[in-house]
């Protein structure tokens, strides 16, 4: 079956949404093993052609969703933080139906063995990911000989083999040879592809549970943002730095959806009674709000406005409160000065509920993105710089709230965490660790200013500096 001549299934039955998702299969299990378990050799070629890389990304592939520019697969995160590329069970079920419906197989081919099925509750997160290019799809997987990969791939599978449990009669399983078959061109090319997901999984081993939790939050945030569910409300307080019980400002930035379109709203409140207090250790930027007109209100109105803001948006659906390093802002929300919330949820669920308040912290999300397993967090200014979000007059509560939401959207609308890291900072991680190695000019304010005029600095002795030898650093 040529990938540029894909036959059509009967229109009345073409929607694969009719198949319920009951679990997931690893992409590599479907690609390399399913066809070897088929009892009828005449069914092997049609299946291999249907799941070839170039066929999967073809606009007429039967798994292509309307309005989606590519094949939508899934990235699942396991409890140890490792990620795997997955087919849903609905996609696998529909492919076997489709091959039979268009006459390419005499009967629906058998499903993969049940031991290959990954239940949804075995995954911490599972988010969709779209591939429109065959090369990008190849790079997303790791190809390994069957005898090595299966030995440590899934504990439930190993337990079943030790117990000698019989497989269902419809489940058939083959064994992948140590090398791809000579006529398996797609398999041979895949063996030479970049090993994206598995490479990062190896780096994660031994990094501890904090980074795993941050990666979980990152992928769950991406998944929830993609559903266009609820309201995302970034908040920031400013207090007098000589007495943190005196609140001077409050800023907010809202993202929500109306008829599928993203709507943004921003605001900035200044406490009238505390307007004359000046900061000693941070800039005095109270009067430099970038996104509208600041409102000067009394302490009583300040408290009431914040309470009304949160109450309004939590009635419309799940409310995601977005902070950059949430600890102090949450204390203010719960304090007598504001009293806007009582209970918050810090773990993002699969199905957020209307009226619930969920905490999302961009400081933790960025730690996941750069692969940082330490207890330290980067400042909002540093995060925005690395995400290439221009900032002006930070330490104004309204500006900080807006830039915090901009940072969230930048990360939540990007690719999965490991792919996004490599896209933003190519080849900046060591083989043994997932942490990005930033260069001095990316971390220092003065370097950053110089770069805009002169370009990034070059190493002594490089050609750019008039030296004879090339620099080992690539800026």
Order of helices and strands: EHHHEEHEHHHHHHEEEEHEHEHHHHHH
Determine the number of helices (DSSP H or I, runs of at least 4 residues): 18
The largest beta-sheet arranges its strands as 8-7-6-5-9-10
What structural class results from the helix and strand content?
alpha/beta
Content of β-strand: 15-25%
Keywords for this entry:
475 residues; 6-stranded mixed sheet; elongated
Overview of this protein structure:
The protein is an alpha/beta fold. The chain has 18 helices and 10 strands. A hairpin with a 5-residue loop joins strand 2 and strand 3 (83-88). The longest helix is centred in the middle third of the chain and has 18 residues, at 209-226. The radius of gyration is 26 Å and the shape is elongated. Mean pLDDT is 78; it is low at 10-18, 142-195 and 448-475.
Describe the SSE topology.
Blueprint: E1 24-26, H1 27-32, H2 44-50, H3 53-56, E2 71-77, E3 83-88, H4 89-101, E4 125-131, H5 134-139, H6 146-149, H7 155-163, H8 185-191, H9 196-204, H10 209-226, E5 231-240, E6 243-258, E7 261-271, E8 295-297, H11 299-315, E9 319-323, H12 327-334, E10 357-361, H13 362-370, H14 380-386, H15 397-412, H16 417-424, H17 440-443, H18 445-454
Parallel strand pairs: 5-9, 7-8, 9-10
Antiparallel strand pairs: 1-3, 2-3, 2-4, 5-6, 6-7
Helix pairs in contact: 10-13, 13-15
């Amino acid at each position: 079956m040529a990938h540029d001549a894909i036959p059509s299934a009967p229109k009345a039955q073409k929607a694969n949404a009719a198949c319920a998702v009951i679990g997931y299969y690893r992409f590599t299990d479907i690609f390399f093993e399913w066809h070897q378990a088929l009892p009828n050799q005449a069914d092997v070629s049609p299946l291999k052609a249907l799941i070839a890389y170039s066929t999967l990304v073809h606009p007429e592939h039967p798994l292509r969703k309307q309005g989606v520019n590519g094949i939508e697969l899934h990235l699942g995160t396991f409890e140890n933080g490792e990620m795997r590329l997955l087919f849903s069970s609905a996609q696998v079920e529909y492919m076997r139906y489709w091959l039979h419906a268009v006459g390419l197989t005499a009967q629906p081919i058998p499903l993969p063995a049940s031991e290959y099925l990954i239940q949804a509750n075995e995954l911490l997160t599972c988010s969709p990911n779209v591939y429109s290019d065959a090369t990008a799809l190849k790079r997303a997987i790791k190809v390994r000989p069957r005898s090595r990969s299966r030995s440590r791939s899934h504990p439930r599978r190993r337990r079943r083999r030790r117990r000698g449990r019989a497989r269902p009669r419809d489940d058939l399983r083959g064994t992948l040879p140590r090398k791809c078959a000579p006529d398996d061109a797609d398999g041979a090319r895949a063996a030479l592809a970049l090993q994206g997901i598995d490479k990062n999984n190896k780096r994660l081993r031994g990094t501890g549970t904090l980074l795993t939790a941050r990666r979980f939050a990152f992928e769950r945030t991406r998944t929830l943002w993609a559903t266009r569910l609820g309201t995302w409300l970034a908040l920031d307080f400013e207090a007098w730095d000589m007495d943190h019980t005196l609140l001077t400002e409050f800023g907010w930035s809202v993202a929500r959806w109306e008829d599928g379109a993203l709507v943004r709203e921003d605001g900035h409140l200044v406490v009238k009674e505390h307007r004359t207090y000046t900061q000693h250790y941070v800039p005095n930027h109270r009067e430099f709000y970038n996104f509208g007109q600041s409102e000067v209100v009394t302490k009583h109105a300040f408290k009431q406005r914040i309470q009304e803001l949160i109450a309004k948006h939590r009635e419309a659906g799940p409310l995601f409160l977005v902070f950059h390093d949430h600890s102090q802002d949450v204390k203010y929300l719960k304090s007598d000065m504001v009293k806007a919330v009582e209970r918050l949820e810090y773990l993002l669920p699969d199905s957020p509920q209307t009226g619930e308040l969920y905490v999302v912290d961009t400081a933790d999300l960025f730690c996941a993105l750069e692969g940082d397993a330490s207890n330290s967090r980067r400042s909002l200014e540093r995060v925005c710089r690395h995400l290439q979000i221009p900032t002006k007059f930070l330490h104004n509560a309204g500006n900080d709230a807006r830039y915090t939401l901009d940072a969230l959207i930048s990360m939540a609308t990007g690719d999965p965490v490991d792919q996004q890291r490599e896209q933003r900072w190519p080849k900046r991680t060591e083989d043994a660790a997932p942490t990005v190695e930033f260069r001095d000019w990316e971390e220092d304010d003065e370097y950053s200013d110089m770069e805009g005029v002169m370009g990034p600095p070059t190493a002594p002795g490089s050609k750019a500096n008039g030296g004879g030898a090339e620099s080992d650093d690539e800026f």
